[in-house]
Design brief:
The complex is a heterodimer. In chain A, helix 1 packs antiparallel against helix 10 and helix 3 crosses helix 9. Chain A is built from ten helices and seven strands. Chain A is globular, with a radius of gyration of 17 Å. In chain A, strand 4 and strand 5 form a beta hairpin. The longest helix of chain A has 22 residues. Chain A has a single domain, classed as Rossmann fold, CATH 3.40.50.970. Chain A is α/β, with parallel strands linked by helices. Chain B is of the alpha/beta class. In chain B, 42% of the residues lie in helices and 18% in strands. In chain B, helix 12 links the parallel strand 13 and strand 14. In chain B, helix 2 packs parallel to helix 9. The N terminus of chain B is likely disordered. Classes of the chains: A alpha/beta, B alpha/beta.
């Protein structure tokens, strides 16, 4: 097994990203609660990872040589669940059970309940340390597997992120790629008003990382950045992906209130139509 | 009783049975384990000289990670290593490991049931001169409250070595509480530790002392003092605080009707709390808790601090006599 899908067809990946967004919106509406904005903002990145870049095997989630994905911003669980379902880790019908009693699709990802989820997340700031540990273990075993860690920009206000940023660079973990879903918003408002993060590129660079600054909705740029990261030796790579919260649905885009709010049935209808029209 | 006498007579006869700090025993046990198993990795947060992980670091530099002064990252990194099949031991001082990184332990290690061993040193007030900032008196409570977590407090160097070997063979998160100061050997020659099993030295008819860590030694001394005064007190070493050995507690409560718990920890949430929780629902008998009485520690020599906070054999004796007078 080298790649699960490995598609380099940009048109196909864009189409897949639309499908991913559709499923996210449907499952969130069914659940009646959950995080819409941050699931949509990272949809292109996660689509690129699961349907092009990552070596993984849905039939064998514990495959030793797989690339790992850690959703440090655990509240984007609907995005991860969609990527896993569409990859074939479990039946798509399960998506309807999000946040319901007895479902393995918890409000935030739980690795004990759902194969394919590498580690439980939800409390922000912890994923990169875990990714580092995995990267160390993979190197010790002589495996070429890579570890991808998706963080929110607001999440990087957590001090632990910078502890981990220091460690990855100190231990020269070039098999780590952190992707910052830089949508500029957090629950209480614009990141720049709540707790300013810029200059974010300079910060990661100062911590010893190779930094790539891209438009996180440009599929070509996302794929190119992931390719570039793989060529960097001796240091970890951070991709600062400039994104729009709620991307793909005009009336969710850039709206703070849709951080933690699910679409209503009426909104879902409009949203799905918009995604279809834009196809 | 005979067993107990045998154990004290054999005290310190061989080099194996020397009085050492539990952290020193940990350092030796890690080294042995590292030789046996190449999946063992050790992480520390700039305290490897004090936690005694330094000898492992020297012997196996490629399996040791110093994470610097960053306990939260220490825990997460250990978690990540376990997810690639390694057996990580993450060590620092108890107050930083369980306090500074509590939520990382909760979310990443306990919730996901990762095979990470949290072995912390410098617990309790016997950290001594460094004072309250460094004296973990609430670590057992912090770990015990977490689902999936096993909590072990070894009493001496011998037990510590056995604990480290046992937890390496157990899959799941474990917290082990170790100390800074040298402690007397208290475990019998033929002792064999297993997780969740208490060691009963003697079951007393008048009172039974359930102790952990360095208080086991004080409890045994108290037992001898009381015996001379005609009071039959028993001693149980409850080295696994979670899961608690309910049978041993029940047996002690049924035999004497008075239980005294003894720990170098807050009387809230630790061994005393665990014993009271169990007995109140299953076999209510009077319980007296010896421990740090909801206050912070302070600087001073450890033996003086033990006296100041009422953690000596004399304190146990006094407590038992007073409780018996009332009953």
């Amino acid at each position: 097994m080298t790649r699960f899908s490995g598609s380099r067809d940009i048109g196909q990946l864009k189409k897949q990203a639309r499908t991913v967004r559709t499923e996210i919106l449907k499952m969130l509406t069914e659940a009646g609660s959950g995080h819409t904005g941050g699931s949509l903002s990272a949809a292109d990145i996660v689509t690129a990872l699961y349907f092009s870049k990552m070596r993984h095997n849905p039939k064998d989630p514990a495959w030793k040589e797989r690339d790992r994905f850690i959703l440090s911003k655990g509240h984007a669980a609907p995005l991860l669940y969609t990527a896993l379902a569409l990859s074939g880790y479990f039946d798509k019908a399960l998506l309807k059970t999000l946040r319901k009693i007895g479902s393995p699709l918890q409000g935030h990802p739980c690795s004990k309940l759902l194969p394919g989820v590498e580690i439980s997340t939800g409390s922000l700031g912890q994923g990169l340390s875990i990714a580092n540990g995995m990267a160390m273990g993979l190197k010790m075993d002589g495996l070429n597997s890579r570890v991808y860690c998706l963080l929110g920009d607001g999440e990087t206000q957590e001090g632990q992120v910078w502890e981990a940023a220091m460690s990855a660079s100190h231990y020269r973990l070039d098999n780590i790629c952190a992707i910052i879903d830089n949508n500029g918003l957090q629950i209480d408002g614009h990141c720049c008003d709540v707790m300013a993060l810029e200059p974010i590129v300079d910060k990661w660079a100062a911590f010893g990382w190779h930094v790539i600054d891209i438009d996180g909705h440009d599929m070509v740029a996302v794929i190119n950045a992931l390719d570039e990261a793989e060529t960097v030796k001796g240091k970890p790579t951070a991709i600062v992906a400039r994104t729009v919260k709620g991307k793909g649905v005009s009336f969710f885009e850039g709206k703070v209130k849709y951080h933690g709010m699910a679409p209503t049935s009426e909104e879902l209808g409009k949203a799905l139509k918009e995604l279809e029209d834009n196809e | 009783m005979n067993e107990r006498i045998k154990s004290t007579e054999h005290r310190a006869q061989s080099t194996e049975r020397k009085d050492i700090a539990t952290r020193d025993a940990y350092g030796e046990a890690l080294l042995e384990l590292g030789k046996k198993r190449d999946d063992v990795v050790v992480l520390d947060a700039d305290l490897s000289g004090s936690t005694k992980t330094a000898s492992f670091a020297k012997a196996f530099p490629n399996r040791f990670y110093n994470m610097g002064i960053s306990e939260q990252d220490l825990i997460g990194t250990a978690g990540g290593l376990s997810l690639t099949g390694k057996l990580p031991f993450a060590s620092t001082f108890a107050v930083f490991e369980t306090g500074r990184a509590w939520e990382q332990i909760r979310q990443t290690i306990a919730y996901s049931h990762l095979n990470v061993k949290l072995v912390a040193t410098h617990s309790g007030i016997t950290v001594a001169e460094d004072g309250a900032s460094h004296q973990a008196i609430e670590d057992v409570a912090l770990m015990r409250v977490l689902p999936n977590m096993t909590v072990i407090v070894p009493s001496d160097g011998i037990e510590t070595k056995q604990v480290i070997a046992a937890i390496a063979d157990y899959h799941g998160p474990v917290y082990v509480r170790l100390g800074r100061s040298k402690v007397p050997v208290v475990m019998p020659e033929d002792y064999k530790f297993s997780i969740g099993k208490a060691h009963t030295y003697h079951i007393g008819k008048d009172a039974n002392i359930i102790a952990a860590g360095i208080m086991v030694s004080a409890a045994l001394n108290a037992m001898e003092i009381l015996k001379k005064e005609g009071i039959d007190a028993g001693v149980i070493n409850m080295s696994t605080i979670k899961p608690l050995d309910n049978d041993a507690v029940l047996c002690a409560a049924k035999a004497s009707g008075l239980i005294v718990t003894a720990e170098e920890h807050s009387i809230i949430g630790g061994l005393g709390g665990a014993v009271c929780e169990f007995l109140s629902e299953n076999y209510p008998v009077p319980v007296r808790r010896i421990g740090i009485k909801d206050t912070f520690g302070c600087s001073g020599p450890s033996d003086e601090l033990m006296k100041l906070y009422g953690l000596t054999a004399d304190n146990i004796v006094k407590t038992i006599k007073e409780a018996l007078k009332k009953s």
